[in-house]
Specification:
The chain has about 160 residues and is mainly alpha-helical. The protein has helices at about 1-10, 15-25, 30-50, 70-80, 95-105, 110-115, 120-130, 145-150, and strands spanning about 15, 55-60, 90, 135-140. The strands form two sheets. A two-stranded parallel ribbon has the order 1-2. The protein has a two-stranded parallel sheet with strand order 3-4. The longest helix is centred in the N-terminal third of the chain and has 20 residues, at about 30-50.
Length: about 160
């Protein structure tokens, strides 16, 4: 769905795991160094893009190692460069999310190192509580979700 949204908007998609993958080569998932550098990379990318007048789509799935203030820091970073943030909440079932992680071979051993996927809800709620009301919602199970989400965004976001 995010790829479709990127295609429809012409915006680059910055998947959160791009930074995660790099850091996993050096640091253990969830270690203080990993957590600090991951946040620094994400925020530096947002700030630099906003300062350059570049828009992007960032994928993000809150979990226990993400600081609850991260959404607030994201908004502060982007707004400091006169940018604007629109939060969009995507819904996917836990079994589907787990299937995707396993199918992609993403984060080998991650589920053993961090909280099990079904244990993410408290961490997700903590981080989501920091989000201002999402501008839009979409259920990823539906095929045309990206197209519907695109249609629900204000024209200034397209």
């Amino acid at each position: 769905m995010v790829r479709e949204l990127g295609r429809l908007t012409g915006l680059p998609v910055f998947h959160n795991h791009l930074v995660v993958d790099v850091l996993l080569e050096v640091f253990e998932f969830g270690s203080p160094e990993f957590v600090a550098l991951r946040e620094q990379f994400w925020l530096a990318t947002f700030g630099t893009a906003a300062a350059s007048g570049r828009c992007l789509i960032f994928t993000f799935a809150p979990e226990g190692t993400v600081k609850p203030r991260f959404p607030h820091l994201t908004v502060e970073t982007i707004e400091a460069h006169h940018g604007q943030v629109r939060f969009v909440e995507l819904h996917v079932t836990d079994p589907e999310q787990e299937r995707r992680i396993v199918a992609l071979g993403a984060f080998p051993g991650l589920l053993a190192v961090s909280e099990p996927l079904t244990g993410r809800q408290p961490a997700s709620r903590r981080v989501r509580a920091q989000l201002s009301s999402p501008s839009s919602h979409a259920d990823q199970a539906s095929q045309p979700a990206g197209r519907r989400l695109f249609g629900s965004l204000p024209a200034t976001s397209r």
